[in-house]
């Protein structure tokens, strides 16, 4: 290995550790009574976030499509200690539902401290066969609804000096096969919210943005798709959820969970050829 590369890697590690060391400590008390809206909260990471916020004594509004499941999740939130837990069923592909959900939360909670955007639409794990209809639909669910809700909630978040939390993916930082529409929506999110972060800072608006880069998480929907197809390790949804909440509460711009997703991202930037080789030849069981 060249001296330059060694120095570079050591510098990156030192900078990373220094950054972690100076990161603000998480105070669970800060979430007591805080007003939170979590999307995609009927299952997976969103459901786990609802339970963590509940344990911290937050006031929660959750949303997803299935009313029955939302009702069960809110009941569990109340039993875990949420000061308030309410739900509203919504379809994020609709043009009006994203606004409707934010308005509901603002009215029921009297404002918002955290807007946690987490929902995704189901998408096949397969090579792209030109399905424009699905890609357009997924863009509405995974991207357009996010920016619509963020814009609607922004005045309230500015008042409360609140936080916008966006659940994204390693697939927003590096390209992979089999998830083209999904990856496109996540790249769009990172582009938009990374840019919005600059504009808010320049306007001296004290709303924090956290963009969460997740690796493979062991949710039912993710595991159903990749079982037998990939050797990439999956990490627990409940821990992912807690890390996302802490990133929001401590106003960090970037979260990487599990931690090595950051290393993978850096490796891809430094050694694109080797990374592509591994992706194409060793990451998936694929026989054309
Ligand atoms: C921004 O808001 C946070 C959370 O309320 C607060 O701790 C911080 O002091 C604020 N910063 C400025 C510059 O107002
Ligand atoms: C790796 O993948 C590339 C592109 O699919 C292919 O050209 C190459 O032959 C593969 N190498 C091995 C060792 O399988």
From TrEMBL:
InterPro entries: 11-beta-HSD (IPR051253), NAD(P)-bd_dom_sf (IPR036291), Sc_DH/Rdtase_CS (IPR020904), SDR_fam (IPR002347). Keywords: Oxidoreductase, Signal. It holds the Pfam family adh_short. Residues 1-22 form the signal peptide. It comes from the Eukaryota. Belongs to the short-chain dehydrogenases/reductases (SDR) family. This is Hydroxysteroid 11-beta-dehydrogenase 1-like protein. It comes from Ataeniobius toweri.
């Amino acid at each position: 290995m060249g001296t330059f590369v060694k120095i570079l890697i050591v510098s990156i590690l030192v900078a990373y550790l220094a950054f972690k060391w100076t990161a603000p400590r998480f105070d669970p008390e800060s979430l007591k009574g805080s007003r939170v809206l979590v999307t995609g909260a009927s299952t997976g990471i969103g459901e786990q976030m609802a339970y963590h916020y509940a344990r911290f004594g937050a006031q929660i509004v959750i949303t997803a499509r299935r009313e029955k499941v939302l009702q069960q999740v809110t009941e569990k939130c109340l039993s875990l200690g949420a000061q308030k837990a309410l739900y509203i069923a919504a379809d994020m592909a609709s043009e009006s539902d994203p606004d409707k959900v934010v308005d509901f939360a603002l009215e029921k909670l009297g404002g918002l401290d955290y807007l946690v955007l987490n929902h995704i639409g189901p998408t096949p794990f397969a090579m792209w066969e030109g399905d424009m209809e699905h890609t357009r639909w997924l863009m509405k669910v995974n991207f357009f609804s996010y920016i619509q809700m963020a814009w609607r909630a922004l005045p309230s978040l500015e008042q409360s000096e609140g936080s916008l939390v966006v659940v994204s993916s390693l697939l927003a930082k590096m390209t992979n096969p089999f998830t083209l529409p999904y990856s496109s929506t996540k790249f769009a999110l990172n582009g938009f919210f990374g840019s919005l972060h600059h504009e808010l800072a320049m306007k001296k608006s004290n709303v924090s943005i956290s963009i969460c880069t997740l690796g493979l998480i062991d949710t039912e929907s993710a595991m159903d798709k990749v079982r037998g197809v990939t050797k990439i390790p999956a990490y627990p949804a409940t821990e992912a959820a807690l890390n996302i909440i802490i990133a929001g509460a401590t106003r960090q711009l970037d979260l990487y969970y599990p931690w090595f997703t950051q290393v993978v991202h850096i490796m891809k930037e430094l050694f694109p050829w080797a990374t592509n080789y591994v992706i194409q030849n060793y990451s998936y069981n694929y026989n054309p």
